[in-house]
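> call design_seq(struct)
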């Protein structure tokens, strides 16, 4: 296609590879004791980033890590007591509603099942209870009716 470019080859040159030096921990060298008169502060030894113990003024030291309080590992109930009360109230209310519904259903079905003959017998019993004693015994009772009538007529002859 392009003959002048097909013959082009990049220049051959030496490639240098960078080889970094291995890291070594920082060594501050010998420490010189500087202790100005009258400025002494308490010193604590703390580990540095490389695990060595270094001196540090106490007021600059990090706060010590406090141990957490032990946790209460006693097992909790499977269901919350308040949830148990609500569940019990729901079951009790449901049982009450079922019992009331069953009772009302029995009364309604009994009222619907009364036939004409049963109503006649109820009417006979009610009439027998309301009838006077003389009608039941055949008229041999000792009932006495007293009637007192006062009749006064005014005559005006004048």
């Amino acid at each position: 296609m392009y003959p002048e470019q097909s013959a082009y080859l990049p220049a051959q040159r030496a490639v240098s590879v960078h080889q970094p030096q291995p890291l070594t921990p920082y060594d501050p060298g010998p420490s010189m004791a500087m202790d100005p008169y009258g400025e002494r502060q308490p010193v604590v030894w703390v580990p540095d980033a490389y695990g060595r113990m270094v001196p540090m003024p106490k007021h600059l030291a990090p706060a010590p890590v406090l141990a957490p309080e032990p946790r209460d590992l006693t097992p909790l109930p499977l269901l919350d007591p308040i949830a148990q009360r609500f569940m019990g109230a729901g079951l009790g209310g449901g049982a009450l509603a079922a019992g009331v519904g069953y009772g009302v259903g029995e009364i309604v079905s009994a009222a619907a099942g009364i036939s004409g003959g049963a109503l006649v017998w109820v009417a006979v019993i009610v009439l027998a209870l309301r009838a006077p004693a003389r009608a039941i015994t055949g008229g041999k009772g000792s009932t006495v009716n007293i009637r007192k009538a006062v009749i006064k007529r005014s005559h005006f002859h004048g």
